[in-house]
Amino acid sequence: MAKLPVEKMRELERRFGEIEARMASGPAADVYVKLASEYSELQPVVKTIREYEKALAETSDLDAILADRSVDKDMRDLAEEELPALHERIEQLEKDMQILLLPKDAADEKSAIVEIRAGTGGSEAALFAGDLFRMYERFSSTKGWKVETLSASEGEAGGYKEIIATITGRGVFSKLKFESGVHRVQRVPDTEASGRIHTSAATVAVLPEAEEIDIEIRAEDIRIDTMRASGAGGQHVNTTDSAVRITHLPTGLIVTSSEKSQHQNRAKAMQVLRSRLYDIERQKVDNERSADRKSQVGSGDRSERIRTYNFPQGRVTDHRINLTLYKLDRMIEGDIDEMVDALIADYQAGQLAQLGEQQ
């Protein structure tokens, strides 16, 4: 096990105490919000550090009792009984601490933009894209996150050819970032008379929602075109040129939004463009950092088939970590915590292994 960075632990405790004192002194509202954010981030780390230090002190006391021959036998026997459980607790706290002290992804606390596109499989793929969107929508609801659709292109038989939405809340990206990739479904479509299983797919991309501070878009680097927008099937026809298409000239990225308000469309399209450019920058940095060692889960390759949903057998398999869960009906209803937590744990184990190699 990698050695715990004692100096860093001391510094975090000192910083936590400093924040507590500053919050108690009644700072201005904007300063208080920033301090509160850092406080809630440090709180679980410092709590674990203090529990670890307390366990070490208790071990030291028990060792002293065992070493002191003037202490009566019953007392020493009791100390000997307590030590194994205390050693186990220290070992667990050390593991917890190592995970809490791992280098943080700067985007983890951000909200996210989720893009789902139907792949191979025609109407069935669009229906599956709709199932995936509802799965993330229900999962978000259990977390208290807000979901807002930015743009959607509906499939002919239902579902979506493409849907883009923001999921707003603290830590959304940290929970959903490993959902990026190709999701495959195997099931018997309602229209299939012979009961033959069809395979179709949808691609999911999860981007950290970028703010203006994260990425600068120069006015001369974009071209904005307005177009006539109309609703599905000719309904709600909007007779003004309200749909917006933004082209980012240096990269060739194109983003469109076609709601009723041109002002809203421009804001939404810029929001998606900013997040896509931020994602490109992050991918570039990640690729440089992991040129010699690629994390199995964290590669973010969106052309990679990551998961299969097999309806006849009621199972979901994540191919990156070889995890199969026989709870497809619950997962498709938004109960994806077990899968999400397993992916995060696997990624953290990889990070710990890398740290061990470096030390």
Automatic annotation (TrEMBL):
Residue list for modification N5-methylglutamine: Q235
Example GO molecular function: translation release factor activity, codon specific
Annotated TM spans: none
Database matches in Pfam families: PCRF (PF03462), RF-1 (PF00472)
SMART domains per the UniProt record, alphabetical: PCRF (SM00937)
Coiled-coil intervals: none
Location in or out of the cell: Cytoplasm
Gene Ontology CC terms, in alphabetical order: cytosol
Domain of life of the native organism: Bacteria
Region (Disordered): 284-311
InterPro entries, per database record: PCRF (IPR005139), Pep_chain_release_fac_I (IPR000352), Pep_chain_release_fac_I_sf (IPR045853), Prokaryotic/Mito_RF (IPR050057), RF-1 (IPR004373)
Keywords (A to Z) from UniProt: Cytoplasm, Methylation, Protein biosynthesis
Entry-linked PROSITE patterns: RF_PROK_I
Ranges for domain Prokaryotic-type class I peptide chain release factors: 228-244
Protein modification: Methylated by PrmC. Methylation increases the termination efficiency of RF1.
Biased composition (Basic and acidic residues): 284-307
Keyword Cytoplasm: yes
Family statement drawn from the similarity comment of this UniProt entry: Belongs to the prokaryotic/mitochondrial release factor family.
Record function comment: Peptide chain release factor 1 directs the termination of translation in response to the peptide chain termination codons UAG and UAA.
Matching PANTHER family: LD18447P
Protein known as: Peptide chain release factor 1
UniProt organism field: Rhizobium skierniewicense
Gene: prfA
